[in-house]
Design goal:
6-stranded mixed sheet; 26% strand; ABC_transporter-like_CS; globular; alpha/beta; Rossmann fold; Phosphate ABC transporter ATP-binding protein PstB; ATP binding; single chain; 4-stranded antiparallel sheet; ATP-binding; binds adenosine-5'-triphosphate
């Protein structure tokens, strides 16, 4: 079902269909997400990339009228994330998400990163401070903010805000981080620093990223899934997808003939 070679699967999407009301936005999608690698989801607007990403942390549960059919199995526990007995709130801690537009809370830099830890019930100030520092270091932001942790998060630049959102996600030690076009609102320098960060982060977490930027997928991902009209057209190593696509639709998209 996948061409992941020797990689260990962190998650497996199995025959997943997803419906917004009667509309099937995903149709029988199956793919494996390799542990400690970056997997990119690409395809033209409306093909279902964000919908697939949002299934992983049960974001759709927040909206009535949506329905999942199929499974997303998370390893090593081998649980189906879409099962009705799985708590979506717990899932969102294990599987973090970073959005297109940086969305810090209107709180201090420190409180943004401490937020998830406090939700989890951590009350020890020293532990919170240590974890906040670690998350900010892991998000390559510590040196820039260590002297202004009490400043409002919204006083940071766009690129810094996005790294803060990454630190906020990392603080609760997720296993997978979902990135939904994380650099589309950023300038080239901020984009480069987020890309470097993603490459660094894969040592610790498994990464799934939606991107419109083909060069970005080429630079940072090991595997690429090409989607079209809710279906997974082709999935494989990024290098193969970009240089020797097996399907004509993939080739047309890669070469800019549509989308
Ligand atoms: N809340 C919703 N209700 C109904 N239909 C939706 C909803 N969100 C998305 N859709 C539809 O589902 C399909 C897939 O949308 P999705 O946002 O996943 O695509 P995408 O590939 O991420 O697109 P883009 O690159 O433009 O963000 C589209 O046809 C879209 O119109």
């Amino acid at each position: 079902m996948s061409s992941n070679g020797n990689s260990t699967a962190k998650a497996e999407v199995r025959d997943l269909s997803f419906y917004y009301g009667d509309f099937a936005a995903l149709k029988n999608v199956s793919l494996a997400v390799a542990e400690h690698e970056v997997t990119a989801l690409i395809g033209p607007s409306g093909c279902g990339k964000s919908t697939l990403l949002r299934c992983f942390n049960r974001m759709h549960d927040l909206y009535p009228g949506s329905r999942y059919d199929g499974e997303i199995r998370l390893f090593p526990d081998d649980v189906n994330l879409l099962h009705k007995d799985i708590d979506p709130v717990e899932t969102r801690i294990r599987i973090g998400m970073v959005f297109q537009k940086p969305n810090p809370f209107p709180k201090s830099i420190f409180d943004n990163v401490a937020y998830g830890l406090r939700i989890l019930g951590e009350k020890r100030r020293g532990v919170i401070a240590d974890k906040v520092e670690k998350a900010l270091r892991d998000a390559a932001l510590w040196d820039e903010v260590k002297d202004r942790l009490d400043s409002l998060a919204t006083s940071l630049s766009g690129g810094q805000q996005q790294r803060l959102c990454i630190a906020r996600t990392l603080a609760t030690e997720p296993e997978i981080v979902l990135f939904d076009e994380p650099t589309s609102a950023l300038d080239p320098i901020a984009t480069a620093s987020i890309e470097e960060l993603i490459i660094e982060l894969k040592k610790r977490v498994t990464i799934l990223i939606v991107t419109h930027n083909m060069q970005q997928a080429g630079r940072i991902s090991k595997y690429t899934a090409f989607m079209y009209l809710g279906e997974l057209v082709e999935f494989g190593e990024t290098e193969q997808i970009f240089t020797r696509p097996k399907k004509e639709q993939t080739e047309n998209y890669i070469t800019g003939r549509f989308g």
